[in-house]
Amino acid sequence: MNFLSIFVLIPLLMLFGLWVARNLNQVRGVMVAGSTALLALAVYLTYIFIADRQTCDDPMLYTASFDWFPALNIKYSVGVDGISVAMLLLSAIIVFTGTFASWQLKPLTKEYFLWFTLLSMGVFGFFISVDMFAMFMFYEIALIPMYLLIGVWGSGKKEYSAMKLTLMLMGGSAFLMCGIFGIYYGTGAATMNIIDIANHTGGAHAFESGSLQNLWFVFTFAGFGVLGAMFPFHTWSPDGHASAPTAVSMLHAGVLMKLGGYGCFRIAMYLMPEAANELGWIFLILTGISVVYGAFSACVQTDLKYINAYSSVSHCGLVLFAILMMNQVACTGAILQMLSHGLMTALFFALIGMIYGRTHTRDVRELAGLMRIMPFLAVCYVIAGLANLGLPGLSGFVAEMTIFVGSFSNEGAFYTTLTIIACTSIVITAVYILRLVGKILYGVCTNEHHLALTDATWDERFSVVCLILSVAGLGLAPWWVSDMIGTGVSPIITVIDSAKEFLYVPF
Amino acid sequence: MDYSQFLNMQAELSLLAVIVILFVADLFMCPDGKNGKGVYNTCLPVVLLTVHTLLNLCPLCHEAGEAFGGMYQHTPMMSIVKSILSIGTVITFLMAHKWLSREENLVKQGEFYLITLFTLLGMYFMISSGHFLMFFIGLETASIPMAATVAFDKNRYESAEASAKFILLALFSAALLLFGISLIYGVTGTLYFDGIGQAVSNCEGFNPVMLLGMLLFITGMGFKISLVPFHLWTADTYQGAPTVVTGYLSVISKGSAAFVLFTVLIKAFGAEGLVQAWDQAFLWIIIASITIANLFAIRQNNLKRFMAFSAISQAGYLVLGLMDGTAQGMTSLVFYLLVYMVANLGAFAVITVVEENTGGITIDSYNGLYKSNPKLSFLMTLCLFSLAGIPPFAGFFSKFFIFMAAFNAGWHWLVLIALINTVISLYYYLLIVKAMYIIPNDNPLPGFKVDCYSRTALFLCVAGVVFLGICGIAYNFIDGFAYGLDNVAKCCMDAVDCCCSQSCH
Q1: Hey, is B499 helix, strand or coil?
Q2: Which residues of A touch B408 (CB under 8 A)?
Q3: pLDDT at B287
Q4: Which of B284, B278, B137, B285 is nearest to B200 (CA)?
Q5: CA distance B404 to chain A (A)
Q6: Which pTM value belongs to this model?
């Protein structure tokens, strides 16, 4: 048994523990124990991974493989590289803080945590897998609990949002499944293992001729792109986030949307480099639209969660945008952006949830002067906002800087123009964040009911402080993460570069 | 005469023994319902059938064989399918206990077991047939008693109506089937599947009469599997039949017919040209079945009608395994059948206990069920997720494999259409989940305690739903015995042609 599998084993044990738990305290106990263990494991993994990376040149470390369905060459294979270690760490932090953010959730606490844990199992399983089948399975495991989590515990027009989200994401995964079949049968490598497929016939030209690589690329990229909130498939995201309960929004924006970007990079681009070079420009335009359009949409929203959801569309669009730039710096920036966006959006959603839990409104027009009423939450909100608009010293700056430097270094007017257009999103972000902060935190509070509200409780403070520390840690000392991510990105970039002869640039 | 050939018929003979024992036992059971007759009467058939199933599974590794000069043929794969069907029947019997303990059903409890087992016996013969006559006898043995079970609630108008629809359409389809068989006989001069296969491959060129015969055969089987456009009886019959019988009808009867369709097609119609013809036919049948049934299912409110349309679309997925008649397709088809069986019977078990205890049968009546019956709602959710193909439940694996088989056979667009349809099907399965968990309802169906037989049935189904996929054992086991047009030698198709394995290796 490989120790990476413990990432899946712990949620399984948690599920069992929750199943037998008799009262609220036991449920909380199981959740805290489990999520702490996951966090500890993720930190330990990061630590030994950085040490082992120095000595070992394999693309994946700690690999293990077990026969599952030998007739179809399906194996349960695990392994991690720099990218997945970063993602695992992110997921562990979000699950840990999400547990505390839903400390006071009622009713049906036990059932809530059951689905929550199932979701996190899917997420962890996805990031440790290197077998396409296992990856796809965990991907879908992570999607379906969302329906019940939003439908039962959500707010607003939750039934509509839950159904829309589930169907759109499942529609994406229908194309994805087709893409996976296409890759499996197209390469003729007789394996589902991503690394083996990439190494089959020496990297770039893995596909046999006439195997419709371009079609499968579009299917796979769009399939993952739906979860990555790529324009025009992003419409589930604002509704879903707005209706979801706090911790679910955190987990969804923080981790689940990263599955999309990770999958695009790891499966679509890595395994189909020729098609990526040939068709990348289409998706580059689409993601460019996401970036700018998301930011503009956020400006006109009045619901706090909608603002943040559109801001997520913009930032996640930036992830896919940077991946499609297909160079080392931009792609490292993309992974950093996943990490940074995951942390700060989780922080944002946690704070919005806490504010909403007190004021019972998320309408910007009804909120004002919160700085006096709940100073702790308000200060944290400002920090989250600053991270979001990319203030140096916080994580957003590092990521966006790397992305834009990387993107701009690509030759050609096409890339330069797109980079400049995408850069405008920074300004727009500043507009809506600063306006928002000014309006709800510093205005004069006229609502009698709001004046009597209290500040954060201990569990909320704990969850928020953990997230702020992570955001600041990433912002102040990014080199250890970016070095680690760089080692994971470079083999993929090498493969993509080797197919550069197919590169197509519209102008 | 060599009596050892009877050993090949072990499954049928032991099932016959079970039927005889039950028949005799029924005579001695006291007709009075008060003193524990019900308990004894459910235990006996369940235990006997379980023993039969285990016996059936044990000598699986035995070689293929035949009896009566090739009229009856046997391969290990057939044993597997028979075992799957008999496990399904055991679950159906367990589910039936509560329904059979009703006042008006008490006197005819024994009959239900006997009639059901006769249909099972018919399916066994149909599966193992090597000759169209044997096949037809099996088919009729399976379908005529089935009409009796559909009409089991004979005092209920709907039940009788359902039975009339079923028997009329079954006869109609049988007539088409017979016409097809007679055309095939006219062309080839034989009714042995192998003989037909040889005659077809020997004759030069394209024979339209042969093609017509094959299409009529497919039509006849299409009625049994309830594929669009031969599905019109399904919804009414499923709705009118007693719920337990509906469960049996939607899984066992359908599954056996799909498997037989596969084996007969590759044995008798495996020639170049004909394969392309039935691929084309199935291409449109599958697209129509999946899409139309999905669209109809969305509008249903009666759960049994709903499950009928769900069953039609599932049949469409099942038949995906037939494309090109590959060994991979056979494995996926049988595995799909197994997984579909546990998930569907699980859903029906929940529907049955809810109906027997509270009378609720519409989706609306399930509103807020989670409040009063959390465990049942949870089990129903698992089964529905499995039907929709959500991991980690078995349905995901079976769907993945059957799509993979069809994709491997080159039907990319068909797979894509089927995949898009899984999203539609997810929508309507989620409607029930939504009713149970999300829609607020102050007066949900009252809570109740589930009897131990239904409990066992539910346990078996849910265990299957959870473990069949994750543990690859079932699939890998089935795969070891699969054969198809591309891989005849994987496990000799029949004893006569066993030498082919040497030439193929």
Answers
A1: coil
A2: 181, 185
A3: 94
A4: B278
A5: 7
A6: 0.93
